[in-house]
Structures are given as structure tokens and as C-alpha cells.
Design brief:
Helices cover 41% and strands 20% of the residues. By secondary structure, the protein is an alpha/beta fold. It is built from 10 helices and 9 strands. The chain has a 7-stranded mixed β-sheet.
């Protein structure tokens, strides 16, 4: 015989209140009253014969017993949600996660066209990710686009959309009449789209300039998008992604002072769990995105490792 569990509604009320550190926010999440949450928590405290919360002024604090109980409940309710989601009525919505810069620069327009062309519903969630990841066990997504070297779990399907090519970008007026050279680059204000300055470092190393151009100083951002926007507005020279700046370059909104693209070693991949319902919708989106990639008109640049003199 299994040990009798306390009421599920009481466990759910406690888990929500503990996550939010608030009875009020738990009540909003569960569509209950605050007094109902309080009653459910008291039911649980009576069941375990211990206090689960302490009030310190307006703050709600977990007791040691509450802290012991919470992690297992979070995992348990996550497991229940996953089990139920596999049998939920297929609502025809494809839930897609993607990094923020890719979303703004390339993906959002394609998803809009896909909706019009196919009448398919895609729910796109843009997320800032220092390292692109998705957890299909705990996150509510059917698929994701990730920048990666391609080493994905065996239980995923994946398809490469396009490679990432790093290239310096600036405002169109910063191009000037004189060709950019090493001296001009050394004098320029470098903008860094990553706090560890890895994009400039990678480009300079591939060009044989790592020892000649200093990475010290310059504005530091936390997304490729912010670096490219700052460069386009004339604040300096940033590293951008060739595919993502192609339209801006073609329309004269951005310039390429040193038109040599360096592969980062990563690509953008569409990934999804194997065997999950609705896989045919992901495959339809994949085919559409691949056609969009094939139609990209890149600026005329060199794709080679060269040295500037």
C-alpha cells in the first residue's frame, strides 16, 4: 500500500505561494482567493504537524520544513504538467523559442510570412541567452532555433539553417572615401557585443591581427543586436552577423568597413524532440525557413582568412 498523500490542491497552493513568496500572487496564478490559499496551506501544516511559512513584517519566508518540501513539489508538478501535455488536445499551435537578436534581425519577418503563406499558427518566444539552450522537458516549446556547434542530444532532431559569419559593421557615413586599413581599425572605437569580447577576439585572431589591435576599452553590450544598433548609429565599429546585417547593408543603413567574414564555428539550427506529436508542423516550418535561407542575398564580401597591411 502506498502512503496516503496530503490533498493535491493543498500541495499546489503551497508550491505556488512558496515560488512567489506571496499568498496574493499564488491566488492570482491559481484563480483562487487569498483566503483560500491560506486555508490550503493550513491544511498542509496540520497534515505535517509543522509550520511551512513564517511572516516577517510583510515578507513571507519559508521555514526549514517548507524549504525541504518545495524542491520535490516543483519537480513533481513539472512532471505532471509534462505528462498531461503529451495527451492534451492538439491546438495546432507551434511553440518556438529563439534567441533575441536572431528574432529581431531575421526570424520575426519570416515567421510572419510563414503564417500568411500556410495559415499555420506559430507562437514565437524571444529569449536572451548567453549560451543558446532549450529544455524540452521543462519549457513549453515544441521546437527552437539555437546557435550551436551542433552537438545535440540523441533524442532531438536537428537541421542546420545557416552558418554564423562574423564581420565588422559600422554606420554608412563611417565608411568614408578612404579604404579602411589596419591603422584606421586601431584608431576606431570598438564596440563589444559580448562581455567577454569573444566576437572581436575571434575575428582578429582569424585575420592574424590579435597582437596588433587592442581589445581594451570600448563600450560593452550583452547582445549582438545592441552592438549592431550602436554601430549603425555611429558610436563605433562592432562585430555583426553577415546574414543578419545583409538587409541593412543592402538598404544603406549599415556599412562594412572591413568586408571579410570569418566563420565562428557555429550555425543556427532548428531543433525539436523526436517522436513528439505535431512533428509534421515543425518539418513544414523547417522547409519554409530553408527556402528563406536559400533566397538570402548576401553582401559582396571575402570569406577567407587574410591579413590587413
Amino acid at each position: 500500500m502506498r502512503e496516503r498523500l496530503p490533498p493535491l490542491y493543498a500541495l499546489r497552493a503551497f508550491e505556488s505561494a512558496a515560488r512567489h513568496a506571496s499568498f496574493t500572487r499564488a491566488a492570482e496564478e491559481l484563480a483562487l482567493t487569498q483566503s483560500a490559499i491560506s486555508r490550503h496551506v493550513r491544511t498542509l501544516e496540520e497534515y505535517f504537524s509543522c509550520r511551512l511559512f513564517e511572516r516577517q513584517g510583510r515578507a513571507l519566508q519559508l521555514t526549514e520544513s517548507g524549504r525541504m518540501l518545495l524542491p520535490g513539489l516543483i519537480d513533481g508538478f513539472s512532471s505532471l504538467e509534462r505528462a498531461c501535455s503529451t495527451l492534451r488536445t492538439d491546438d495546432g499551435v507551434l511553440r518556438l523559442k529563439a534567441p533575441s537578436t536572431l528574432t529581431m534581425r531575421w526570424l520575426l519577418a519570416r515567421i510572419s510570412r510563414y503564417r500568411l503563406a500556410s495559415s499555420a499558427e506559430v507562437q514565437l518566444t524571444s529569449a536572451w541567452m548567453d549560451v543558446d539552450t532549450v529544455d524540452f522537458q521543462h519549457e513549453p516549446f515544441d521546437c527552437a532555433v539555437l546557435l550551436s556547434e551542433g552537438n545535440f542530444p540523441a533524442e532531438w532532431d536537428s537541421y542546420e539553417l545557416f552558418r554564423e559569419w562574423l564581420i565588422p559593421v559600422c554606420a554608412p557615413e563611417a565608411l568614408g572615401e578612404k579604404t579602411w586599413d589596419l591603422l584606421r581599425l586601431k584608431r576606431a572605437e570598438l564596440l563589444h557585443p559580448t562581455p567577454d569580447r569573444r566576437d572581436w577576439r575571434q575575428w582578429l585572431q582569424a585575420m592574424g591581427l590579435a597582437d596588433q589591435v587592442s581589445l581594451k576599452g570600448g563600450q560593452v553590450f550583452d547582445t549582438l543586436e545592441l552592438g549592431m544598433v550602436a554601430a549603425a548609429r555611429g558610436y563605433g565599429v562592432s562585430i555583426g552577423d553577415l546574414v543578419m546585417v545583409a538587409e541593412d547593408v543592402a538598404q544603406g543603413r549599415m556599412g562594412l568597413p572591413l568586408p571579410t567574414a570569418v566563420p565562428s564555428g557555429c550555425s543556427y539550427y532548428l531543433v525539436w524532440p523526436k517522436g513528439r506529436r505535431g512533428a509534421e508542423r515543425v518539418e513544414g516550418l523547417r522547409d519554409f525557413l530553408l527556402a528563406e535561407v536559400a533566397a538570402i542575398r548576401l553582401p559582396e564580401v571575402a570569406f577567407a582568412e587574410v591579413s590587413l597591411g
